[in-house]
Design a protein that fits this description.
Layout: H1 3-24, H2 27-35, E1 41-45, H3 49-59, H4 68-83, E2 89-97, E3 100-109, E4 113-114, E5 121-128, H5 131-147, E6 152-155, E7 157-158, H6 161-164, E8 165-166, E9 168-171, H7 190-196, E10 200-210, E11 225-228, H8 232-237, H9 239-249, E12 257-258, H10 261-271, H11 275-278, H12 294-301, E13 314-317, E14 323-331, H13 333-337, E15 344-352, H14 361-375, E16 380-387, H15 391-397, E17 401-413
Parallel strand pairs: 5-6, 15-16
Antiparallel strand pairs: 1-2, 2-3, 3-5, 4-12, 6-17, 7-8, 9-17, 10-16, 10-17, 11-13, 13-14, 14-15
Helix pairs in contact: 3-4
């Protein structure tokens, strides 16, 4: 090509770009784009971590921009692990318009995930710049689910739960991000797009800030119970019993239960991150002055405060020796990633064995848990992923808490 032809070609390309930009500014084009009919969308499935990283860097919106690189890094670690597992059913779909990414979604059939005890496919990390992109991405997810004869799909279920959490945020956008809780954009159109595409908000989850240091119903506990704190290793040794307790308690009755070994291991891995903070506790602390409750004092006296996991108080039936209840909290890793002081806890899981319900154990574990965590400088507690389809029931169960954010899980029968 000679110089003259090259200059003419460049002018043509430049003119076409100007025309395209002018068209895109027209109200009719913007209306068509909002409806998802102005562009040709290409959907591709990928296992390229490099491609996923580039797309997420472009599309993923994180309220605290400083956390975005770390969140993407942790997501890539998760994908790498899952892609390497033989037979694990997972897909990553990316949407492109004119070779530019316009959407992203993951879809998987996790062997441990249950909804009301039933197997379901899940989609997560859904990002779509327009409705047609959303539609095309979800069609791919639905086809993937049908391939394995799964007739129900729910989302967002953002694996790994420690980062992504459950649901699409619908309330509380101004609140500080909390590790293990979904974050969202208040201007997102996903909720409306999902409704139009045949998905309905089957479950609503609330995150509730704990306002009261002490819950009255947990003050007077039957002397047949004792409370314990275990070291991180001892807690791992209790894994099987805790998993059986969880299965007995709610795996078959709650909408979104991510049970099994993997979830427990994830929680324990996160808890281990606070070991340096735990070991900073002062030797001079006299716990007998922290509470008048003899059961709490006994729990502190029988453990080494520099070695325990303070985010996992356990209630034991003295007569049978079995675990009656346990709280499992996770530290706000966002604080730790930003190299801030660790002061916030996500109360991720609360389990009370069925036959011990109504005896104040949940409240007692909260009271003990708060008192113990405050020894280490923790002063913020938020119960997360609380199923709250019945808001009146939630208010009656948690009168000492206030709702700070809500998330919706959308479902469709295929």
């Amino acid at each position: 090509m000679n110089v003259k032809d090259y200059i003419i070609q460049k002018r043509i390309i430049f003119s076409l770009k100007r025309i395209k930009k002018s068209i895109q500014k027209l109200p009719l084009f913007k209306k068509m784009q909002s409806l998802g009919i102005a562009n040709v969308i290409k959907i591709s499935s990928t296992r390229s971590l490099r491609t996923i990283k580039i797309v997420l860097n472009d599309l993923l919106q994180v309220p605290n921009k400083k956390l975005k690189p770390k969140i993407i890094f942790e997501l890539l670690k998760y994908f790498k692990r899952k892609f390497s597992q033989d037979g694990f059913k997972i897909k990553v779909f990316i949407a492109f318009i004119d070779d530019e990414p316009s959407g992203f979604v993951t879809c998987q059939i996790d062997p441990y995930y249950r909804s009301y005890g039933r197997k379901s496919a899940t989609f997560g990390w859904l990002i779509a710049r327009d409705r047609l992109t959303c539609d095309e991405l979800l069609k791919k997810c639905e086809q993937f689910a049908k391939k394995y004869k799964v007739r129900r799909i729910r989302g967002n279920i953002n694996y790994p739960k420690g980062i992504g959490g459950i649901g699409i945020q619908i309330q509380g956008f101004s609140k500080q991000m909390l590790y293990g809780v979904p974050f969202g954009n208040p201007r997102s159109h996903l909720k409306n797009d999902l409704n139009i595409l045949g998905y309905f908000p089957e479950s609503i989850y609330s995150c509730m800030k704990v306002n009261a240091n002490t819950w009255v119903s947990g003050k007077n506990i039957d002397k047949n119970f004792r409370f314990e704190y275990l070291t991180f290793n001892q807690l791992k040794d209790k894994k099987q019993e805790i998993l059986e307790l969880a299965e007995d308690s709610f795996y078959s009755i709650l909408p979104d239960s991510s049970g099994g070994k993997e979830r427990f291991d994830e929680i324990m891995t996160i808890q281990l991150k606070i070991k340096p903070f735990v070991r900073r506790v002062k030797d001079t602390i006299e716990c007998e002055h922290c509470s008048e409750n003899d059961l709490f004092k006994e729990a502190w006296e029988t453990c080494n405060l520099k070695e325990i996991s303070p985010l996992a108080p356990i209630a034991i039936d003295k007569n049978s020796g079995e675990i009656a209840g346990v709280l499992l909290g996770i530290p706000d890793m966002y604080q730790i990633w930003l190299e801030n002081e660790f002061t916030r806890v996500n109360i991720d899981t609360a389990i009370i064995r069925r036959k011990y319900r109504g005896k104040g154990l949940f409240s007692a574990l909260n009271n003990l848990g708060q008192l113990t965590c405050r020894i280490y400088g923790v002063n913020y507690f938020e119960g997360t992923s609380i199923w709250s389809n019945n808001s009146n029931a939630v208010k009656s169960i948690f009168p000492h808490c206030s709702t700070v954010r809500k998330h919706a899980v959308f479902q469709k029968t295929l």
